[in-house]
Structure formats: structure tokens, C-alpha cells
Amino acid sequence: MRGSVALSGRRETGSPTNSTSARSSAWCGKGRLYSIDFLAHGAAVTHMRANSCHHAGVSPAGRRRCCVLLSGGVDSALVASLLLNDGWLVRALWVDYGQPAAPAERIASQALAGHDALEWQEAVVGGLMVPPEGEIPGRNDLLVATAHACAPDWSVAIGVHAEVAYPDCSRAWLSAWQSVLDVQHEGVVALLAPLAGLRKPEVLALAHELQVPMTLTHSCETGPSPCGQCLSCRDRHDDHAGA
Ligand SMILES: [Zn+2]
Fold it and tell me: Taking the model in full, what pTM does it have?
């Protein structure tokens, strides 16, 4: 059965803060662990690489604009922080695709966007059959496509990290989606996955190091309170630094 898909959205702007500049030096100092443009290939990406971490603090120029898929979890919050620290102009998109934790995720996403004074946009995709937890086949395809449709001239950033068995978290998947974007934008629009080389404990450690506001995030896949059983809850259980 194929459900109807309706796309709607609205934009808000979070309350301004000025917390990014202080974190820039931390980002540059630890840049060896991750790469904003790890997927980059092609001429346009070369341009982005030339303006990457080594030039943090330089005003963003040209097309260094990125729509972050800000789910409300730690991973995407960290991605936004990394991009801000690297000088990108960042906007946030939260997608409601009928996930069980949508209300809690939405609150967290808005709060995180407000913390960093990001423009925040919501998109609603209806008619999907979403399991209560675990893998949702095609979910990340949906997220990237939605972000691309909402902000066609902006790069897209997603918070996938290493050691996740789902196909749509793999480097092959990321590379394939980059190829799709390249067809339409001749290499100018990138799919950024700066956490793709990091395991979850490394993600959590980096989030603490960069002072990501962990208390604003929401991680459980099943609902508003941590179930302790889903993959996201188990990942957070490993967050010994934040315990
Ligand atoms: Zn859970």
C-alpha cells in the first residue's frame, strides 16, 4: 500500500544567542576526528574543502549554506554545532513523518534551534507506515529529499554516525545520495555527514566537549520518556560523561 504524501511546513526563528564563536577554537583544535565534507567529491566539493575547518572564523561566503536535519537528538544537534563552528550559515529542518516520538522531538528540535538562533522549519509528511521503533526503511531518503525540497540551493546535513547497521546510514548510501544531488546541482550542493566516521561514544564525547546543550535533546524513539530499550536509549546509556 502506498500512502499519500503531503508536504507542508512553516518557519520560525529561535531566540538569539551568541554561543558559537566561543566554540570555534575547540572545533579547529579537534578537527582531526571528523570532517565536515567527508563525502565530498567533484569540483564544487573541492571548493568547500578549501573553505573548511582551516578557515574557521572566516565569514561564510557563497554557497556555504546548510540545512541541518535537526531531529532533536544529540547527533543532529552536534552536526549543527560543528557546522556553525566551521562558519556555515545553518538552518534547521524538523520532519514529522508520523514517528511515535514526534511531539517530544519537535519540542527538542525547536529548543536546540533557539539555542543557536537558527531559522527553524517544520515539514509534515503524512501517510507513512512507521514501526514503533527500530529501522524505518527509506526514512533517511525521505529526510534528505525533504530537506532538499525545502531548501534546494542549500547543502543538507544529517547526523548519521558509524557502526549503525541500517543501510541508509552507510557510506555507500551517503555517497549515492551525493550523486543524486550532483546530478541536479553539478556538485555545488553537498550531503554532509560529519559524524559518519565516529562511533556513538565518540559522538557523545564530542558533544560534551563542544557544549552541546544535552538537556534540550530528546533521544528515545518510542515516546516522550526514555524507554531504556530502543537503540537511541541504549546509545544514551553509554553516555557516561553525561550520567
Ligand atoms: Zn527509548
Answer: 0.77
